[in-house]
């Protein structure tokens, strides 16, 4: 004897399948991270509005959840000042910083980025970026140690960066 299903039951099954498939699609999209974009002469810093290419030092890019566009920053200081705001911290998908060991301080190259969460940072050094004191970023601990040996400062990781540290850095209290 053939089994008959009611229309409301079939609609419920279809809706649940649709939700399940949508969830899978969203997870697949989030597993593919957008790559850093070239910084052009017309790009302005997302925080201060200054033209990014007019200043030395490592730059940053951030990708927020549900937004495919890169937010670009004139310095790692501005990047982290933005990212560490409570309303932004939970919305971050991923971010990039220049590996300054692979490029020049004066004009960092577009092909020298590293994921911000994986980088090693030196704070309190004697080099200046767009906003004065900034975080020098490196792909490897040994690169950060070599920079610290030449320019001073303290080596930290992504998880060590908070608004208190950024405030001290901005006021020049880290030497």
Poorly predicted spans: 24-29
Number of DSSP-assigned strands: 7
**Per DSSP, what share of the residues sits in E-state strands of 2 or more residues?**
15-25%
Helix percent band: 25-40%
- Biggest sheet details: 4 strands, antiparallel
Question: How do the helices and strands follow one another from N- to C-terminus?
Answer: HEEHHEEEEHEH
Radius of gyration: 22 Å
N- to C-terminal distance: 84 Å
Shape: elongated
Average residue pLDDT = 89
> What is the oligomeric state here?
single chain
Pairing-aware structural class of the strands and helices?
Answer: alpha+beta
The tally of helices reads 5
Q: Reading side by side through the largest sheet, how are the strands ordered?
A: 2-1-3-4
């Amino acid at each position: 004897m053939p089994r008959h299903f009611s229309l409301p039951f079939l609609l419920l099954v279809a809706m649940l399948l649709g939700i399940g498939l949508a969830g899978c699609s969203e997870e697949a999209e989030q597993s593919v991270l957008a790559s850093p974009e070239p910084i052009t002469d017309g790009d302005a810093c997302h925080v201060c509005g200054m033209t990014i290419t007019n200043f030395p030092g490592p730059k940053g890019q951030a990708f927020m959840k549900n937004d495919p566009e890169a937010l670009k920053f004139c310095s790692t200081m501005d990047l982290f000042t933005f990212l560490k705001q409570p309303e932004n911290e939970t919305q971050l998908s991923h971010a990039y910083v220049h590996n300054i060991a692979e490029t020049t301080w004066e004009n960092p190259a577009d092909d020298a980025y590293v994921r911000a969460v994986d980088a090693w940072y030196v704070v309190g050094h004697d080099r200046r970026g767009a906003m004065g004191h900034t975080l020098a970023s490196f792909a490897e601990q040994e690169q950060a140690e070599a920079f610290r040996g030449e320019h001073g400062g303290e080596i930290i990781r992504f998880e060590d960066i908070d608004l208190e540290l950024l405030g001290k850095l901005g006021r020049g209290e880290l030497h």
